[in-house]
Amino acid sequence: MSAQGAARSAVGKAQRAGQSDGLENLARIGLIAFGVVHLLVAWIALQLAWGGGGKSADQSGAMQTLADSPVGKPLLWLVAVGLIALAVWQAAEVFRWRSGWSASGKTRTKALRKSGNALVKAAVYIALAVLAIKFAVGSGQSSSQQQQQNTAGVLGWPGGQFLVAAAGLVLIGSGIWHIRKGFNKHFLKQIDTSEASPSAVKLVTRLGQVGFPAKGVALALVGGLLVYAAITFDPSKARGLDGAMHTILEAPFGQFLLTLVALGIAAFGAFCFVRARYPERT
Q1: Exposure winner among 60, 95, 110, 230, fewest CB in 10 A?
Q2: End-to-end CA distance of the chain
Q3: Domain residue spans of the chain
Q4: pTM (2 decimals)?
């Protein structure tokens, strides 16, 4: 078989794997796990807003909460497997849109954008899966501390200050994209509501309209902290999602603002459950 034929065969196998019922069912577990993580982050943020808690108001705090439960380790492994399957499910989008790479005009632009978005999402799911595994084996640490360490390392590179600033700007852009997605209701393209009742569609719409902007605000703040760390050349400023939550709390009327953001993130988590019921990639 020629190299070109082997490549086509590999692409075909990847496409079939991405469309298989088994992988889709595992991806459903991943979407539920993704939703649970957001609900736990929201719960920790609410505790932070009203003077309780103690865990980091971010993904690591959510994983620690799962690890502290009676069935913590098996549950974390299940979360990790589901998230890995979700990453593979998203990565299969690259092969789905591969034929459009060689096209021209809007078709090529759309194909490249869809492929890029799928790879970014897959990377996020893999990162969360790795975090879940670390907590499952007892080596997990605060995401905020990890981000500070990573930022300090990158700042030491030639041009590292610009790389950190660029990463922050990307997160700010992602936050704005989430906010915009909530307002224009483009999130409805992520789910297949053809079999859903009108009341279910209304509920899903409300969850998305609240959840996506709230997550967007959190992402934009995380990006802003990264940019600030780059400008001041101080990695301690890059405090991740937990730092973003504390920044909201320290603002005027911070307690109520953080409560609103937490409820919005909880709505996003609930939206993930709906995606698990009616999965659709686009």
Answers
A1: 110
A2: 34
A3: 11-277
A4: 0.88
Q: What is the largest CA-CA distance in the chain?
A: 67
**Residue 188, both tokens:** 């409805």
pLDDT in tens, 217-267: 999 999 999 999 999 999 999 989 999 999 999 999 999 999 999 999 999
pLDDT over 80 at 54, yes or no: no
SS (H, E, C) the chain: CCHHHHHHHHHHHHHHHHCCHHHHHHHHHHHHHHHHHHHHHHHHHHHHHCCCCCCCCCHHHHHHHHHCCCCHHHHHHHHHHHHHHHHHHHHHHHHHCHHHCCCCCHHHHHHHHHHHHHHHHHHHHHHHHHHHHHHHCCCCCCHHHHHHHHHHHHHCCCCHHHHHHHHHHHHHHHHHHHHHHHHHCHHHHHECCCCCCHHHHHHHHHHHHHHHHHHHHHHHHHHHHHHHHHHHCCHHHCCHHHHHHHHHHHCCCHHHHHHHHHHHHHHHHHHHHHHHHCECCC
Task: Locate 183 and state its tokens.
Answer: 């307002």
Strand partners, 191: 279
CA atoms of 95 and 7, how far apart (whole Å): 11
Tokens of 235: 């990695």
**Interior angle at CA 203, CA 23 and CA 200, nearest 5:** 65
